[in-house]
Amino acid sequence: MQQGLSLLIQLVLEFAPVVAELVQKRNQDLAMSKYESIEVIPEILKVINPSNKKSTYVEDLEHERIFQQQLVADNLQTQLKIAAQERETALKLPEVNKIIDSWPLRLYPSQILDYTNYGRTPLKIFIAPPQVHFDQFDDKIDADFSQIELMLAEGLRDFLNKHYSLHSQVRPTELLAGAWDSKRFHSESSIKALFGILKTEPILILESENDGDYLNFRIAYWGLGQGNYYYKTIARLPYREILEESAKRRASEWKKIRDELLALGEELEGINQIGKENVVNLAILEKVEKWNEKGIDISKLSLQYQINRQDFEKLCQVLITYHCLVAGWVADIYHLVNHGIPPLLPELLPSLLSDTFDLQSMQVIASGYKQVYQALENERCYWIPELALQLAQSLFHLSDAYGGKLRSWANEQLDYSVNTWLQLRQISLQDCTNPLQAMQSAISVKDEEYVKKLKEYFLTVGDTQSLADVEEILNCLANLKHQVTLQHIVLSHTLTGHSQKVTSVVISPDSESLVTGCADKTIKVWNLKSGKLIRTLTEDLGEISSVAISPDEHYLAVGSCQHPKSNVRVYNLNSGKLIHTLLGHQKPVNCVAISPDGQILASGSNKIKIWNLHKGDAYGGLCQRICTLWHSSPVHAAALSPDGTILASGSSDNKIRLWNPRTGDPLRTLNGHSGGVKSVIISPDGEILFSGSTDKTIKIWHLATGKVLHTLTGHLEEVKSLAVSPDGEILFSGSTDKTIKIWHLRTGELLQTITEHSEAVNSIAISPDGQFLASASSDKTIKIWQIN
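User: That's the sequence. What structure does it adopt?
Assistant: Structure tokens below.
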């Protein structure tokens, strides 16, 4: 199997630089695309955090990581969209019929381009098997080209199904065995024809071509968004030599059996009849030994060994190993470059190469992966520590069988991982006498999984000193997590009095009063701290959808979702007296919001109407309507930025729209949710937007750029309401799943889940002083929680 080893080394040496070049080219393309390049991330961060103080929501490093991840994801989505468009037009090219005339596959292009959504785009693999001319041997083998193809396909299919299955969510590949049908159209011309039509599909072609006593083994490859293809001969396989070596080995084994039979008294003639072609091959071997002893050069002699089915199967096994090695390596690289998936092949090499696996091959393979990692550093530097650590673990697991040298290469990968981690956090390596101890100064809760993998590695290698250092890091992490969870919430009051589901709750700016709106068509005002009911408003309101209080505590805005009484009413909060009735909505009013300066009131149904809150009279006169914002679907949430310059609205069409509320001009549309948006809020500093959706997720957006900073998952049903603490550190979310969840925004960690409500939590609000949280539920209760 030494040929397989040589092939893999040659492949890595040839292909790794090509992949590195492709990645660098893609980085350049990304920098010139509509998406911001990695180099501009620091500038974006200055916008987010102009004072260079520590970010309120996530650490600067986390900002950069998320932006980088978003850029890569955006680029991949762009490539997929381009591929989809090109896929639709590929078969409409005017020259397609001419190409089909010389098409090298049994499958038509339309069959290959018939796209099925597998999750990740699979790497398609074609086999172009060799046509071996067995008639050149004296004893014809009972084998032909079709049998080679069948055995080769079965061997590769078995390998891919175990490790790179089409149905895998991690490293999917699609083997299209039996598709190759190139009789007069081959080599560069066939690859060029395929690329012209199928360049939208990531494809690997494994081609073997007969060349005398050799098979030229070539690969063709192109990935997503690749402007050209890679095609090269990476090995010349001496297939005649493989067949004859197999025949010689059988002859040597036969000699042992023959001698044992002779020792038992069997006749030589009868033994030879059993031996068949082994007798001829053994005779040639014995002559060769004699001639070699006499110093005769036999290299120019034509020695015709007789081969049989076993030798043919041996050749097929070598070919299968070739194909598995190349398919595994290329699939690893494809999924690494496009999806950041760590390579698998290092773990599979011992079983593939068994007796010929050696240290040189592993060093070449490890250096090849590292070369690709280094090419990815500009694009995905934050993924490198994890990738290098995974490779170190794979190498060390092999070291028991292959010795200490392999352990040193594993440690090199480990050092590369840790040093990259430190560099990303701008910790000078020159000042690090102990890199692991240096990690303690920059560790965060987000790094817990990485540190646990470090611990697993040092446990495996038996490095007690490094293990002690990692334990110290884990202790630091435990302290950080403890500090985060010190803030807890205790139930203070449960308020009853509403007869139907409570739909909305708001706390007054002085943190003294609580207002609730209900489907029972009443509004109740409570003392927040005592839970005492102050007053109830019942004036022909219809079913209440939303309530809001102005910053000066003078106005209470109420939205009704009962058509045709869909309107917005404005009351004096202290007296309960009606001040304004705002008419104009033709659909249920789902939400109301008041700007922090108290000047603007926004109400949302299928449209959003913006009102000047201070214009009107006590007898139903209309406020001055500033503008109307048009949505195509019902609006369920609205929020105004602290400076009043941005209105965010969430709709059942899954979108969030940003507007200038004074002019009505649209600013931006945020796409990301896969379900209707039920809640939007803006952070106290006006930099971050939070959204909750029927897709069960919470998304955290950078308001200025519209980029998703983080997605929080954990709710089992739709997220109906959100609230953020005054210091911007904690996010509260209420859901139809009957729970309230508490999140630490700097780490994205779920701190606590509250399960006191027996029905959906429809609305939550936090007091401006940060000491109380109120929750309204379909269980007809309001709960007041004290935050410690």
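The first strand starts at residue 123 and ends at 128.
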